[in-house]
Amino acid sequence: MRTLQAMLAAAWLGAGPSALAASDAPYSAETTYAKLAGQYPHIAIASAEAPAPVRVLRNLGYLQRGEHALQLDLYLPGPNGDGRGRAWPLVVLVHGGGWRSGTRQNMAPLAARLAARGFAAATVDYRLSGEAQFPAAIDDVREAIRWLRAAALQYGLDDKRIAIAGGSAGGQIAALVGTTNGRDAASTVQAVVNIDGLSDFTSEEARKHEDDPSRNPSAAGAWLGGRYAEQEARWRDASPLTHAGPGSAPILFITSGQPRFSVGREALAQRLARYKIPVEHVNLPGTPHSFWLFDPWLAPTADAMQAFLERTLGVPQMPRAPWSPDLGDSRYRNPVLHADYSDPDVIRVGKRYYMTSSSFTNVPGLPLLESGDMVNWRLVGHALPRLVPEQAFRAPQHGKGVWAPCLRYHDGKFWIFYPDPDFGIYVVTSTKFGGPWSKPRLLMAGKGLIDPAPLWDDDGKAWLLHGWAKSRAGFNNVLSLRQMAPDGSRMLDDVSRVVIDGNTLPGYKTLEGPKLYKHNGWYYVFAPAGGVETGWQSVFRSRHVDGPYEARIVMEQVTSSVNGPHQGAWVRAEDGTDWFYHFQDKRAFGRVVHLQPMRWQDDGWPMIGEPSAKPGVGQPVPEFAKPMTMTAAASVPAPAWPAIGDEFQEKRLAPQWQWVANPAPGWHSLTERAGFLRLYAQPAPVPANDEAAIAALRSLPAVLTQKPPAPVFSAVAKLELHAVADGDTVGLAMYGQSYAWLGLRREHGELRIVYVRCEAANDKCKERQEASNALPLKSFIHLRMDIGAGGQTAFSYSQDGANFTRAGTPFTAAMGRWVGAQVGLFATGAAGAYADIDYLRITP
Fold first, then answer.
1. CA distance 815 to 731
2. Chain center to CA of 690
3. Residue scoring higher pLDDT (632 or 469)
4. Dihedral of alpha carbons 96, 102, 105, 109, sign
């Protein structure tokens, strides 16, 4: 059944000029995007996906007005692992839409971003002008504040630290609520954020737009019950300027490049100043009205709000992870790792869980992750300090190196079998997961050998199953088996035997990535097929290790939003429940890791995920009960995530950093200047010719990278360049087959801020400098990347670390060769030049 509000909206759309014109589309991010995209082609609708840790409680009813149930959505910060016991400060968010359109969903992206930063946020309904005129909306929003304050204990809210914020008409409503503080304590707010909303309806400038006689009624006129001449008292009463006084709350104005939407701001600020009430103003030049609905402007909007609210409410927030799967209520959400841990393999040894993944040409390779509850993971190191053969990886070899590994525990030690498609299958071992690990030993030489999976059988024999890379071997879609010495020292067969042939199975292509298990007298091969982005997970079984094998598809996308759910590991938890890890290819964000429940059916086949419309076939779950709760196992740590960013306080690089080739001793130092990473300038690669050469940054070995940790995040590097010659450069990059970077470069004897893009379908793009600006006064700079929906990356710079200036147009992050895009730092130039990086900070 449609709500009253929905029915009224339909009526307005069909009504005459006395209501919302039929040509006026409802106010939303989608309709606004359609209007703005031509003039602002680089924008993208901001994602409403909450960058965890965030819990969202939807459709909470706070008031019944006749047949209309007014509701709100509450976004609560999730666990942060900081032992925090105090309540969350709250921001009530009011949507815009000319007082006659729009929904609370418009404020969802901002709510999610604020909650990820430690503020509870509530997006609220209110009655629109077609249902009830002024002051109904004000009354409704005040009722929402009262309801939330009364429910503070239930939801963990701080009832003494409540702010109100809104955009456009919502900004005006927020300002009016804040300037009329004191009418009753229950609806009082301690801070206001007016995002591009009016502060005065009565000025000549305001009435030029809001009382336009050609629009009868205007949006304001419809809400206020008539034109200014007819309802002057209402127009004044609805103006925040009218009510500014000693009880008004401190206010932050965030304004666009369209000053007509924030008319009255200066007058309101002056009046509040008389009462010594703090007023702040942040302008985002060149932006359209409704900028907060879109990337790249959502991040600076949230930044400005966070800084103001921390100061005004007196609650500085702890740094928070950009992503966490732990929802804090004994449930988790996927992906459990929103980072490029491709082709994951996972095992349990005792009460601990261990993971490794592909690393391709990133060095160090074979990441080592550890968990106590299968959901929260820590990066503890790498098993492969350098790639072998050494000489082959002195320069970047994109897409080569370490492909899908297999992790096992046997005979009192950890084993990792990993393939290099150009050289063969290697093995490394260690008695401790954190290392040290043995040097790589080439177990089986040959081109095209990939995805090894060992099995030590009950009879003492050992086997190695593997796939084939068509790019090297000339064929694929088959899995082959060889007998291995039980000590893993050598292969006992001269030739691999095909035991599963995907070419004989209808619809199968790219059968690869096997894992070999034995269960209840059956040999099971878990293997993906169908391709990286669109494939599925199959299981094969046989009573004999060399076949013949039956086949069944046990998980695919079906109706879920997770494309290509496949390739990973079956793990039996300590309590006997079964689980499956797999990846999802998210292009610029790489292959992120999901955890699915798994159960064995009566017919001896597993089902992975939740049941789908296809009999016997599972599909991925977005959320599920955690395999092991904190109360169930004291050994489980607090929520944890792989480390990100760096303050450079240690004497060696933290494990989150990887080079794009085997590093040389003279590339960096963490001891030359305490608390800083020093990057020594390396010679910039000189292409043989502009058309055929690999792009400059893609052929530079000395690029230091981290994995993007979330679907939306910000990265800020504070750095300085010590140049000795023109051309010396330091940069912060979004690094992939196409890339962009912002940095410092010496040009004509002076330091300049430069923004460079390199866009093509492969590594052979040609760099283009889009912007160059003089760097005044200081030699250091804050470089920033804001990554939004779809990988859109906006670069900006600042000298004070607070006020950032946009550099050029946003860039859409692009995947690398078999990997996601990466956050990168580099320095190039003449001998003797270097850059000092104070920190890299990555935040929600």
1. 19
2. 35
3. 469
4. negative
- CA dist 290 and 299 (Å) reads 14
Q: Do 774 and 702 contact (CB within 8 A), yes or no? A: no
Bridge partners, 55 (sequence order): 76
- Are 616 and 599 in contact by the 8 Å Cβ rule? The answer is no
C-alpha Rg value of the chain to the nearest Å: 29
Q: Is residue 7 left, alpha or beta, with left meaning phi > 0 and alpha meaning psi from -120 to 50?
A: alpha
Chain-centre distance for alpha carbon 174: 29
Mean pLDDT, all residues of the chain: 92
> What would the pLDDT profile of 244-270 be if each residue is shown by its tens digit?
999 999 999 999 999 989 999 999 999
SS3 at position 429: strand
Which pair of structure tokens corresponds to residue 188? 């009082």
Nearest to 322 by CA among 303, 344, 338: 338
Angle of the 108-116 helix axis to the 298-313 helix axis, nearest 10: 50
Q: What is the largest CA-CA distance in the chain?
A: 96
For 593, 653, 786, the CA distances from 349, given in Å and listed in that order, are 20, 28, 39
- The catalytic site residues sit at 343, 512
Q: pLDDT at residue 390 above 90?
A: yes
Nearest-CA neighbor of 578 among 542, 502, 526?
Answer: 526
Per-residue model confidence as pLDDT tens digits over 33-86: 999 999 999 999 999 887 667 889 999 999 999 999 999 999 999 876 444 557
Tens digit of each residue's pLDDT (9 = 90 or more) over 727-755: 999 999 999 999 999 999 999 999 999 99
Alpha helices in 193-231 (DSSP H): 204-210, 219-224
Selection from 492, 532, 540, 491 nearest residue 515 by Cα: 540
Tokens of 617: 């076939």
Angle at 352 between CA 351 and CA 354, to 5 degrees: 150
Mapped onto helix, strand or coil, the DSSP state of residue 9 is helix
List, in order, residues 6 or more apart from 164 with CB less than 8 Å away: 91, 92, 94, 141, 145, 174, 177, 178, 189, 191, 192, 193
The single residue listed with the structure tokens 């779950």 is 621
User: Which of 1-10, 188-197, 788-797 has the highest average model confidence (pLDDT)?
Assistant: 188-197
Residue with tokens 């004044």: 236
Helices 169-179 and 136-150, interaxial angle, to 10°? 70
Q: Report helix, strand or coil for 86.
A: coil
CB 514 within 8 A of CB 523: no
Q: What is the pLDDT of residue 2?
A: 34
pLDDT of residue 641: 79
Of 792, 658, 791, 798, nearest to 742 by C-alpha is: 798
Q: Give the integer Cα–Cα distance in Å for 252 and 304.
A: 9
Q: Which helix (DSSP H) or strand (DSSP E) does residue 722 occupy?
A: strand 713-722
Strand locations in 25-183, DSSP E? 44-45, 54-65, 68-77, 88-94, 120-124, 157-167
CB 353 within 8 A of CB 571: yes
pLDDT at 229 over 60: yes
Q: Helix/strand/coil (H, E, C) string of 287-330? A: CCCCHHHEECCHHHHHHHHHHHHHHHHCCCCCCCCCCCCECCCC
pLDDT the model gives residue 710:
93
Cα 604 to Cα 540, 565, 601: the distances in Å are 11, 22, 6
Q: Is 695 helix (H, G, I), strand (E, B) or coil?
A: coil
**DSSP states of 779-834 as a string?**
SEEEEEEEE-GGGEEEEEEESSSSS-EE-SS-EE----SSS--EEEEEEESSTT-E
Confidence of residue 344 (pLDDT cuts 50, 70, 90): very high
The answer to whether 573 and 348 are in contact (CB under 8 A) is yes
pLDDT tens digits, 758-801: 987 677 788 999 988 988 767 789 999 999 988 999 999 999 88
